[in-house]
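Attaching the record inline, Q. Sequence:
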Amino acid sequence: MADTLVQVQEVLRRVFDDDDLVVSRSTTAGDVDGWDSMMHINVIIAVEKKFGIKFAAAETNALKEVGQDLGIFCDVVERKLAAKK
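Structure, as predicted:
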């Protein structure tokens, strides 16, 4: 789990061009400067490439809803990785 969060943090650092960005499982899009709907798409695409997974449209929309955080996002990533095996 922690490894997934570390990798997602690396992706976010690249997408937001911020080497000092530190996130936790409770981080939300609202906590990251510049994370708007366009950047959300960039994050999704970058995570898909990093992990070799694909998100369905409904999943990407759900990840933007109130109460969603990186912990939930990482859980989705891990479920997708487990399903690939």
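Helices lie at 2-15, 37-51, 57-62, 70-84. The first helix runs from residue 2 to 15.

More tomorrow.
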